[in-house]
UniProtKB/TrEMBL annotation, chains A, B:
<dbReference type="Pfam" id="PF01756">
    <property type="entry name" value="ACOX"/>
</dbReference>
<keyword id="KW-0274">FAD</keyword>
<keyword id="KW-0560">Oxidoreductase</keyword>
<keyword id="KW-0276">Fatty acid metabolism</keyword>
<dbReference type="Pfam" id="PF02770">
    <property type="entry name" value="Acyl-CoA_dh_M"/>
</dbReference>
<feature type="active site" description="Proton acceptor">
    <location>
        <position position="451"/>
    </location>
</feature>
<dbReference type="GO" id="GO:0033540">
    <property type="term" value="P:fatty acid beta-oxidation using acyl-CoA oxidase"/>
</dbReference>
<dbReference type="GO" id="GO:0055088">
    <property type="term" value="P:lipid homeostasis"/>
</dbReference>
<comment type="function">
    <text>Oxidizes the CoA-esters of 2-methyl-branched fatty acids.</text>
</comment>
<dbReference type="Pfam" id="PF22924">
    <property type="entry name" value="ACOX_C_alpha1"/>
</dbReference>
<dbReference type="GO" id="GO:0071949">
    <property type="term" value="F:FAD binding"/>
</dbReference>
<dbReference type="GO" id="GO:0005782">
    <property type="term" value="C:peroxisomal matrix"/>
</dbReference>
<keyword id="KW-0285">Flavoprotein</keyword>
<dbReference type="InterPro" id="IPR006091">
    <property type="entry name" value="Acyl-CoA_Oxase/DH_mid-dom"/>
</dbReference>
<feature type="domain" description="Acyl-CoA oxidase C-alpha1">
    <location>
        <begin position="302"/>
        <end position="466"/>
    </location>
</feature>
<protein>
    <recommendedName>
        <fullName>Acyl-coenzyme A oxidase</fullName>
    </recommendedName>
</protein>
<dbReference type="GO" id="GO:0005504">
    <property type="term" value="F:fatty acid binding"/>
</dbReference>
Length: 624, 624
């Protein structure tokens, strides 16, 4: 039984102020307070309220919506706000371990206030800080304390001007000089300048710089992370040999100072190497617990999953905000009506409902997915921290990598399209800056690009699935993964034989129906992609060509459908738990079915085509 | 035979500067100069070159891409630039009549430089000026000269805070006072404030204000346009009784000052009524050449088609700019490759091609459509000016209204989606303000909303088609329209019996194949929509409900498919003219086929479903 908020807890979830939305709110078939409690839990609601109350009461966080803030002023304000967030110390390390979901919740609250603030905080702590913590060793612990006191301010410098997606082509070098026991960090030319680095533009004092490690008389050992001081913390002037600057105005997130840096033979102590994956002895010998360069590289970039999961949750925040704005507007804006005298709320139009309500359902489904994936990630990181080198731990890493690599694209695109739809659905009012939809869209946009371009990332997920099928076909292995997201594929031959015999619209309102269709679709796409890939290879294409030729028509829809299925599955299970309050079951079930059917409907052409090709005639037409 | 530009005309189309695009340019299968000449014609190329050269050489038009300009500074600059455009006097009235396409060409050139400038110029001349010219009479000619000398600066005030789409619900009043021979313009409350009016925020001295006309002891005669002075031209201070202001920051087009105004019993002379549709005698009697209020209202808003056609052409400009930026980037950006040593241009990836090339084709097809529709509009306006009240003229007005009402949505959405795809396809670099994709997206965005929300407008087109079918079913009338865009529907029963027997991908590379499929699709959708509408009505829905219940699933796809068909048809005919230079036929044919197939493919689910429902089994599967 969920706790209630009646009586003493009114302060936690106070009534909304009276206004034009009252009429709609009175018509709700459920208690919004009960839903909030079920979705968040009381402890989390309190945590969020603490954060929002602090921001509401602090003049540093006051702002005028749609204000015309200069770039410099905005960046300065955002830095001061970021610093203040540390001072508030909303989340202790103990709390973080006890309630790990409070980490994304804090980031989401900051994102609700301003994406630039969330990004600045996240980049310093969870990206820079985590990189130092997870790639470094005991000798780097001194940095951690300075990070949390903001004595130093950090950034994560991987991408270069000419290389982002293809990290293996990154060209910054780190040569070890045994004479002085230093590394020499160097950018060979401007195309190898570090680029797009968040926090680097104006404020970072330190950077985790990825560079190719060379020791004397030896081959290159590949990319390694180094902690490099780039500015004097007192004056913010660049350190000798470092050319660092701000990249200027962006489409959004202008509170965040993205920067570039070139290193001209910058000498850093040997201890600057974050040495968990590999180290250099004072004499200049390279040593590593990992034998294989590829494996080392994989582990050193493993932290990217955590970035993608954070982005996923920030995309969900943007979608939530936009859909709330658009639905509230639609419930109060009246235009046309059955007679000239009587106008109706635009929310009453089927067109407006079709445009907006699926995104409301998507916000719920993706929000749940983002939380559950974060908890999976925590499990992975705990295993990592405790030195777990089991096969399961490795499998878990691969599975989470596959889920995050398609989850970030799905969430960021859904948010991008949803915000655009909300903007248009609010007509001219949606185009006014003070109504925030533009900022949400612009701030969400880079979610489609950073930590891996969406289209490029999807290939990681389709490759994961194709690898499992190859393993099954060639070695008779089972489809099994620690989180069980691929287990259903084990039955793919029988799933592909299934027919759908749904005869009424009412039956489709159970998300189990869409789930079954999704399973069929993913099995079908996986098999087709596998066959197409092999056919490409047989006809003489290299692996590289074959993959490229399959991605548009096969790999991409496979990865997206698989992830949608996973989101639908997890949300379906969530809303059908026995602990769901009876009064919420109907509305949650409808949200689940709506998201599932809406997502599935975008594959309708594929379903029809598959039916023709494979002679699967049982699927009845469900549309109107 | 098209003229050539070799030799003496090198100055008109000079070679591109040498650079990283040379390799791709050298591989072209056609001469870009020949294509430019065929697409534009030599006279137009010269005209555009004159404009661009003037802007390039005038320091007032110098700018830093991605600069952080304050709102006030940007609005001031944009006003000064607009004034300078008048001083350049690029287009004389004689030229305008001789080569009407130079009007949209001028607007497009300004739009290529900056959407805010194009909008500001367009609103003053073609919207405010045209309204005065076409709704006024001889007594208003004095304004026209002042418009072109910028002695006065104008805006068009129709929309109110609470009503945009539903113009009939507009509530500003104009009561005639025979004692002083004045109209009293009045805003009853803030919800009736004029809102979103471009140029009104800071700079307009005069407004065409739409208000409900009342004469003493008589009923309301509906909306009429009045020319009202809102500011002193010397000081720009508001006139007595006028509360006018700027709406603040928008998502884009921030060089344009959108404003609001409330009128507190503002008295204007009787002659301020733009009296072509109706007039008031000095004594206060209402007189009109139109008997019917609806007809009068229709004619007085007829000018909206011209606004929509202008928006269509500006959306095409945005798409052209974005696709050029993204394709050039993709041809020079290298990432990954068949080996670690060799990276290939991202344009070589099938994924990048599938993302971008359809938008290149769309830019060509829609550009042609926008020009041809503009010429149709010129024909309509000439008939209007010469007092043509024939049935053909009325039919032409309705047909152009239907084409513009779906053409604006199609073009603005294609541009919106295309620019977003270009932004993402350029990765992080696409997110940098100086690379302009953000500005293009933000400036294009209102094209989806103003002069009619896209989704609302599409209903105009579907209603037009449904009305023709009803006329055919009920009265046995033929499908015939002056521009012949609906004539094919006359054969709808036999078209619906047709089967598609295309057996190879190669066959589909002729846009005639997609055209035939489109004709079938439009006939199918029209019939289904008609049946669904009648079924709704038979089951007791009011007209209002029935239309709303049909729009999402039927009316909307019907309107879009009809317009896509028209665009494909016109471009198909254009590129298959005998005058097309032989060396361009292949590339133009491919562009035509690509746009047609890509557009059609978005209706694939509908085609499959229709096939199942109607037993039209001949359509073979064309996708790989």
């Amino acid at each position: 039984m969920a706790p209630t908020v009646e009586g003493g807890d009114a302060a936690l979830l106070p009534e909304f102020p009276r206004g034009p939305l009252d009429a709609y709110r009175a018509r709700a078939s459920f208690s919004w307070k009960e839903l909030a409690l079920f979705t968040e839990g009381e402890d989390m609601l309190r945590f969020k309220k603490t954060i929002f109350s602090a921001l509401e009461n602090d003049p540093l966080f006051a702002r005028s919506p749609g204000a015309d803030l200069s770039l410099d002023k905005y960046r300065e304000l955002n830095f001061l706000r970021c610093k203040r967030i540390f001072e508030y110390d909303f989340l202790s390390v103990e709390d973080m371990f006890k309630s790990p979901l409070k980490v994304p919740a804090l980031i989401q609250c900051l994102g609700m206030y301003d994406s630039s603030l969330a990004a600045k905080y996240l980049l310093h702590t969870l990206v820079f800080g985590s990189a130092v913590y997870s790639s470094g060793s005991e000798r780097h612990l001194t940095y951690i304390q300075k990070i949390f006191s903001m004595e130093i301010f950090g950034c994560f410098a991987l991408t270069e001007l000419s290389h982002g997606s293809n990290t293996k082509a990154i060209r910054t070098t780190a040569h070890y000089d045994p004479a002085t026991k230093e590394f020499i960090i160097h950018s060979p030319d401007f195309e190898a300048a570090k680029f797009w680095v968040g926090n680097m533009g104006k404020t970072a004092t330190h950077a985790v710089v990825f560079a190719k490690l060379h020791v004397p008389g030896d081959q290159c050992h590949g990319l390694h992370p180094f902690i490099v001081q780039i500015r004097d913390p007192k004056t913010l002037l660049p350190m000798p040999g470092v050319m660092v600057g701000d990249m200027g105005k962006k489409l959004g997130q202008n509170g965040l100072d993205n920067g570039f840096a070139m290193f001209h033979k910058v000498r850093v102590p040997r201890q600057s190497l974050l040495n968990r994956m590999g180290d250099v002895t004072p004499e200049g010998t390279y040593v590593s617990p990992f034998k294989d360069v590829r494996q080392r590289f994989g582990v050193s970039l493993g932290g990217l999953s955590s970035g993608r999961v954070s982005i996923l949750s920030l995309a969900v925040v943007n979608l939530k905000l936009a859909i709330a704005i658009a639905l509230r507007f639609s419930a109060t804006r009246r235009q046309f009506g059955p007679t000239q005298e009587e106008e109706i709320a635009v929310l009453e139009y089927p067109m407006q409902q079709c445009r907006l309500l699926p995104y409301l359902a998507a916000a719920y489904a993706l929000d749940h997915f983002s939380k559950s994936l974060f908890l999976d990630l925590v499990e992975l990181q705990r295993g990592h921290a405790s030195g777990d080198r089991s096969a399961r731990q490795a499998e878990l890493g691969r599975e989470i990598h596959a889920l995050a690599s398609a989850g970030k694209p799905l969430a960021s695109w859904t948010a991008q399209q949803g915000i655009q739809e909300c903007r248009e659905a609010c007509g001219g009012h949606g185009y006014l800056a003070m109504n925030r939809l533009g900022v949400l869209r612009d701030d969400n946009d880079p979610n489609c690009t950073y930590e891996g371009d969406n289209n490029v990332l999807l290939q990681q997920t389709s490759n994961y699935l194709l690898g499992l099928l190859a393993h099954r076909v060639q070695d008779g292995a089972c489809f099994r993964s620690p989180l069980k997201s691929v287990d259903f594929l084990d039955a793919y031959p029988s799933i592909l034989d299934q027919k759908f015999e749904v005869s009424s619209v009412a039956d489709c309102l159970d998300s189990a129906v869409a789930l079954a269709a999704y399973k069929w679709l993913v099995c079908y796409l996986l098999q087709e992609t596998y066959q197409k890939l092999n056919q490409e290879k047989r006809s003489g294409s290299s692996d590289f060509e074959a993959r490229n030729n399959c991605q548009v028509s096969h790999g991409r829809p496979l990865a997206l459908a698989f992830l949608e299925l996973t989101v639908v599955q997890r949300f379906h299970e969530h809303v059908h738990q026995p602990c769901v309050p009876p009064s919420l079951r109907a509305v949650l079930g409808r949200l689940s079915a709506l998201y599932a059917l809406w997502s599935l409907s975008r594959h309708a052409a594929l379903l029809y085509r598959a039916e023709r090709r494979r002679g699967c005639p049982g699927r009845r037409d469900r549309s109107s």
